[in-house]
Amino acid sequence: MKNKLVLSMVLVAAGHVFSSCTDFLEYQPQGTLSSENVKSADNADALVTAAYASLGNGEMIGPIASMWVYGSVRSDDAYKGGGGVADVQDVNFYEQYNLTQPQQGDGFMHPYTWENYYKAISRANVGLRSINNLSETAFPLKKVRQGELRFLRGHAHFMLKMLFKYMPYVDETLTNDQILATSNRTYTNDQLWDKIAEDFQFAIDNLPQTQSQVGRANKVSAAAYLAKLRLYQAYEQDENHRVVSINKAKLQEVVKLTEQVISSGKYSLQPDFAENFLPEYDNGVESVFAVQYSINDGTTVGRLNFETGLNYPHGAPQYGCCGFHQPSQNLANAFGTDANGLPRFTTFNEGSIDFKSATVDPRVDHTIGIDGHPYKYNAALPFSNSWVRDPGVYGYFQSMKEQQLATSSSYKKQGPFIGTSKNIDIIRYADVLLWQAEAYIELGQHTLALPLINKIRARAAASTGRTKKADGTDPSNYLIKPYDASNWTQSYARQALQWERRLEFATESPRFFDLVRWGIAAQTLNAYLDKEKSRRGFLSGAKFTAGRDEYLPIPQREINFTKGLYKQNVGY
C-alpha cells in the first residue's frame, strides 16, 4: 500500500458556523493544536496535515472539492436531476441563472462554500504562524512545510476567485482586526491573481521534486497550478466580465510552466481513460494533485467524499439515492463523430443522438450512463432507464465518472447518502497538455498544439477495453481519429481545443469556468438554452445574463456583517 498522507486522524473541523464572517476568518480547528500551543516540530507538522484535511472538509450543502453544482450544472454539460426542480431547489436556481440571488440559501450552497474555503485558508494560516516562528534547526522541514501550506492557501484562494471573482485575500500576517477590515475589493482583478500566484511561486521555490508521502504538494504540482492560474489571468476581463484582451506574456509563462511539468517526467496519461475514475488508480501517473480520501482508517465512517453522494442512480436497488447530476442531451450529442472520426462542430446538436447507429467518441461510455450499456465498467450490470428518478423532467442519462460500484472497496452508504474514498483530482496531466496547447493556439503557434491534442485523442481511442458488453462487443460504434494538419488553422485549432476540453473533462466540472475564461459563456449557454428549452420544459424561463452570471454573488450575509465593506458583484 502506498504511503499516503492520512488526513482524517489529526484534527476534525467544527460543524457549520452560522454567525457569519468573523467565525470563519478567525476559525480555529477543534482539537489540541493551535498556533498558540504548538511546542514542537511534530505538533507543527500536524498542523500541516490538518490543513491538507481541510481540502476534503466540504459537504453536500457547501462543496469545495467537487464543483458538479457550480461548474457542471451551470454549464451545458448537465441538468440538476433529482426529484424535480423543487428537490434541492438552490441547485435549480444556479441552473436557471436568473433565479440566483445574493441571499439565496442563507446557510445553503454558495454561502457555505465561501465559508468552507475560508476555514481552509484559516488552517493554512494557523500552520504558517506556528512554523514561521520555528528555526530550521528545530524544524528542518520548515521551508517545505511552508511551501505546502502556501500551496494549499493558494488553492483555496484560487477557487474562491474562480467562483466569486472578488473576495478578501487573507494571509498569516493579518491580525483579527485587520482581517475584519479587509475588503473584497482591496485588490484589482489582476492584482488578486498576482497575490494568489505568490503562494504558488513560493511553493515552486521551496518544495522538493518528490515527496515521500503521496498526496503532498511538490515542486512540479505547484508549477502546474501556477500555469493554471496564469492561463486564467491571461484572459483579461473588464468590470463587466467581458474578455477584452489576451495577455501574451502570461501565455508564454503558461508554456514555460507546463513544459516544466512535462519535462519532469513525473506525470503522464493513464493508459486507459477509465483509470482516472477508479479508486485502484488513485495517485496514479496522471494525478498531478488531488484531494485525498480514505476508508476503514479507524474513524467512524472513514474520510469519505459525500459531496457527490446525491448523484447515484435513484432507481438502482444497490443505490436508492438520489439521481442528481444528469448529463444533458447537448453533452450526449457532443460525443458524436463524423465519417472521419472527428467532432461534428456545427451539426452535433441538430437532433438527439442515436447510440445504436451513430459513431461516437469512446469517452461517452466512461461519462454517461446509457440504457443497456455497462454501468461503471461492469458488463454484468447494464445501466437501465428504470434507474432514472424523474425522466419526464430530466431525461434518461446519468453521470458516471464520480460514481463507484456498490461492490467497490471505496464505497460506503450512510443512511440514504453515499460516500466513497475515491480521490478527487484537482489537476490531471491531461489538463497540463491541453493548457499548453491552448497557450500555443492563442500565441499563434497552433501547429505546436496539434500533437498535444492528438495525444489526448489517441488515449481516448485506446480506452475501449473496460467498456465492452458481456458478449465482448462495444456498446457504441466507436470512431475517433486524430486531427489532420492540413486544415489546422488557428481558428480551427481553437475550436478543436475547446471541444477536446469539454469531452475530456465532461461532468468533471471545469466546463462553466472554461466558458467564462474564454469569454464565450453568454453566447454558448444561451444558444444551449434556446435548443434545450424545446427538450426540457423546466428550462423555459432560464436565461444567462452577460455581465452578471459569470460569477456567483457575494453572500449577502457577508456584506451585511461587514456593514457594506464587501461590495456585491455587478448585476446582483
Protein model, in words:
This protein has 572 residues and is mostly helical. The chain has helices at 21-25, 41-53, 68-73, 89-96, 110-132, 142-164, 176-180, 189-206, 219-234, 248-264, 329-334, 364-367, 391-394, 429-442, 450-461, 490-504, 511-518, 521-532, 556-561; strands spanning 78-81, 235-237, 243-246, 287-291, 324-327, 359-360, 368-369, 374-375, 378-382, 398-399, 411-414, 417-420, 424-428, 477-478. The strands form seven sheets. The protein has a two-stranded antiparallel ribbon. Strands 2-3 form a two-stranded antiparallel sheet. 53% of the residues are buried. Mean pLDDT is 92; it is low at 1-33. Residues 1-19 form the signal peptide. Keywords: Cell outer membrane, Membrane, Signal. Belongs to the SusD family.
Which secondary structure elements does this structure contain, and how are they paired or packed?
Elements: H1 21-25, H2 41-53, H3 68-73, E1 78-81, H4 89-96, H5 110-132, H6 142-164, H7 176-180, H8 189-206, H9 219-234, E2 235-237, E3 243-246, H10 248-264, E4 287-291, E5 324-327, H11 329-334, E6 359-360, H12 364-367, E7 368-369, E8 374-375, E9 378-382, H13 391-394, E10 398-399, E11 411-414, E12 417-420, E13 424-428, H14 429-442, H15 450-461, E14 477-478, H16 490-504, H17 511-518, H18 521-532, H19 556-561
Parallel strand pairs: 6-14
Antiparallel strand pairs: 1-5, 2-3, 4-13, 7-10, 8-9, 11-12
Helix pairs in contact: 2-5, 2-6, 5-6, 6-8, 8-9, 9-10, 10-14, 14-15, 14-16, 15-16
